[in-house]
Amino acid sequence: GNSKVQEYRRSGDDPHDAIESSARTVIEIKHKANATHNGGQLQFGPDRLLYISTGDGGGSGDPDENAQDKRSLLGKILRIDPRQATGRGYRVPAGNPFVKRRGLAEIFSLGLRNPWRFSFDRATGNLVIADVGQASREEIDYLSPKDARGGNFGWDAFEGSKRFRSPDSSPPPDRHIKPIYEYRHAGGNCAIVGGYVVRDSRIESLFGRYLYADYCKGQLRSLIPRTYGGRDDRPLGISKAEVNSFGEDSEGRIYFASLATGKVFAILPE
Questions:
Q1: FRET partner for 20 with CA separation of 20 to 30 A, picked from 117, 133, 191, 225?
Q2: Are the CB atoms for 196 and 124 separated by under 8 Å?
Q3: Which residues have CB under 8 Å from 205's CB, separation 6+?
Q4: pTM confidence score
């Protein structure tokens, strides 16, 4: 079914409660074919605009060619302004790459398979995308919003840096953004879950490193992100079954969730 981004007002009596009756649909994204690769992350960027990640709509090899289709909101990073709503629930920023060009104006980046989690580096403002692969590779992208604007990450012509071939695969785009880091489906890995670049100065050993996990393996790892490549990838020594999300609070503390345990864990100084 379709994916909806909804806004709720906070209760005046309890700031941790949302007022159910205040629900407002900001945007509805058509998703008619499969039950996987739906909506993903919501993040306000350094520009105070709302970024939304969407999967390609599911099905092996993106059979509907959504990720490369500029007429589809699937397989994309979208950028909208929900604070200045028009009759449709949001405003499209004038700086979006396909405003007054061929393509849907909400699109910010394209060519993604299932960017389940992405984040912004709070120190540099750079965008970090963890895109779930299909058969062989998981990828991490790290780049400035300027470079991501209108950028094509290559799916379904590429899976990571590897050419992806299927009866339905798209021809390679003229240019595409290559991952700074990728890993293979070996040793129990299956699906990357992206986290955050650590900017909590109390955790010196992880400061400036990007945290991520793999859903199947459950192992937390970190690497040093650079726009020209990731390096020094290594495990944290922490594993939990079915890690499915990360979070960052206003002070830069990092948390992660385990679907199997139903718990949220904090990354604390040693």
A1: 117
A2: no
A3: 270
A4: 0.95
Task: For residue 221, give the nearest of 229, 211, 232 by alpha carbon.
Answer: 211
Q: What's the mean pLDDT when you consider all of the chain? A: 94
CA distance 265 to 53: 24
* Angstrom distance (rounded) from CA 127 to CA 150: 13
Write down the residue that tokens 């007429």 correspond to. Answer: 71
Q: What is the pLDDT of residue 84?
A: 80
Helix (H, G, I), strand (E, B) or coil at 56: coil
Contacts of 136 (CB under 8 A, 6+ apart): 159, 160, 162, 184, 185
* Amino acid at position 191, single letter: A
Are the C-beta atoms of 119 and 248 separated by less than 8 Å?
Answer: yes
| Alpha-carbon gap, residue 92 to 70, rounded angstroms | 15
d(C-alpha 196, C-alpha 247), whole Å: 8
Residue 218: strand pairing partners:
none
Q: Which CATH number fits domain 3-189: 2.60.120.280, 3.30.360.10, 1.20.1290.10, 2.120.10.30?
A: 2.120.10.30
pLDDT digits 0-9 by tens, 76-130: 999 999 988 777 889 999 999 999 999 999 999 999 999 999 999 999 999 999 9
Tokens 């859903």 belong to: 215
User: Per-residue DSSP letters for 96-131?
Assistant: STTTTSSS-TTEEEE--S---EEEE-TTT--EEEEE
Q: Is 149 helix (H, G, I), strand (E, B) or coil?
A: coil
Distance CA 102, CA 89 (A): 22
Sign of CA dihedral 103, 74, 66, 159: positive
Cα separation, 124 vs 204, whole angstroms: 18
N-to-C CA span, the chain: 44
